[in-house]
Amino acid sequence: MSMLTTPLAVREEGAWQLSGSVELRPEPFGALAYDFHTRRLSFLKSPALVAVVHALSGCPSVGAALDAASVTDAERPTYLAALQSLAAGGLIQERAA
Amino acid sequence: MTALQERPFTDRPEGGRLVDQFEYGLDAPICLTWELTYACNLACLHCLSSSGRRDPDELSTEECKALIDEFERMQIFYINIGGGEPTVRPDFWELLDYAVDHHVGVKFSTNGFRINEERAAKLAATDYVDVQISLDGATAEVNDAVRGAGTYDAAMRAMTNMQNAGMKDFKISVVCTRHNIPQLDEFKAIADKYGAQLRLTRLRPSGRGADVWDDLHPLPEQQRELYDWLIANGDKVLTGDSFFHLSAYGEALPGLNLCGAGRVVCLVDPVGDVYACPFAIHDTFKAGNVRSEGGFDTVWKTSDLFLDLRNPQTGGACTKCSAFDSCRGGCMAAKFFTGLPLDGPDPECVKGNAEFLERGEAPDSSQDHSHTGTVRNAPVPLVLSPTRTASGTRGRPASACDESPLVTGRPWETS
Ligand code: SF4
Ligand code: SF4
Chain A interface, mutation test: which of B408, B412, B413, B414, most A Cβ atoms within 10 Å? Predict the structure, then answer.
């Protein structure tokens, strides 16, 4: 879990990954994310968001992960906002690019 | 012929609200209750599982461990352990450690008798274990009348031990009854005093609860009082989303409004039987047994009962009700055990639509492990006249946004 109290902004240039204490469980509508530290359960309601989150660690940047999951330009703000909430909840953390 | 209404199979919609997705079920439960034993040192009047005596066929330590392995494989991230009183199993602490070592977090419910200083210190030391103390009155008078002599003091002792050990946010779990609804503010004060979280749940006519239902279930005006209190305090108390039938008063309560039975919720009982919900221990709602070939995974994914439950209700009187979207006809178990049709209104329908319904025979219980002899601290039922507390206008929580592809928040636990 990120030790930061104010999460960094998730920008397309930044590099992020799933936090170490978090696991994803695939579901027909997307995935469940569970944080073993905070005991919080979150629901990723779109398979595309799950694809983006999975792609994060293997991509040089958030933008590349969005591309990898075929997120269109029009959808980007929504997905960046969703990633921002994931960051705020400590579910994803920033890493060195 | 099952007691369930025939539901046409329909395809899962794409996107949309989470609650609609949940209606079609999940690949694994998110609210799994596992009752480890029917044995209990108490004899609470409203026990949902009619517990008391151990069943000779209860799962062995090895079988329990194999089941935990299966939970891990299915990525069931946490389970609710109950009973009976789970801590009376000699291997309870061993199983708790085993679960934690296998990435299965545990919240266990206890009456607190065995949470001494030493245990409290151990519990406080692990992130993966959460404790829930049962308390059904904010005073010994109200609590002990339901749970038995000395149980209030035992709960307070356990809470003191946990607080002293530095355990934060453990749960105090209250089953709301006619006698304790006037004490909601007092419960909140107790929780605050111990650094605990208050959890309020609904009384259901399950197990021995059927015998005391008529005397204990909240009166209609108390349901309104409870609803108003939850609207005012809902973000600070847990409810296991068990009061969604009250959402028919107006604004929906926070949380998911649906019956999760067999969809996101299930029960594994001490002998390995899998039921749709902890409040539905009856042959009608038994999906299979974890000892059968394919184990729990197969029961969850393929049992006829669960597949049937994973189809949204399309018929019945409630679907025509203006409140159906949030109330969904209420609790399946409450209807079943009061002899009401499953596709009609809840026995506590706030619109009063269950009052004039013809009730069938209430079904017999399919199991009873109640103590047969005398129990040392057996409860003596109270007759108290409920008093109402004034409820003024209060702030209301904003409703959740349905548009985001992400829903974060409350760990969804039921019942
Ligand atoms: S609504 Fe009733 S039957 Fe359905 S999951 Fe909740 S307690 Fe069980
Ligand atoms: S009629 Fe059914 S849906 Fe309407 S309030 Fe009563 S129980 Fe709920």
Answer: B408
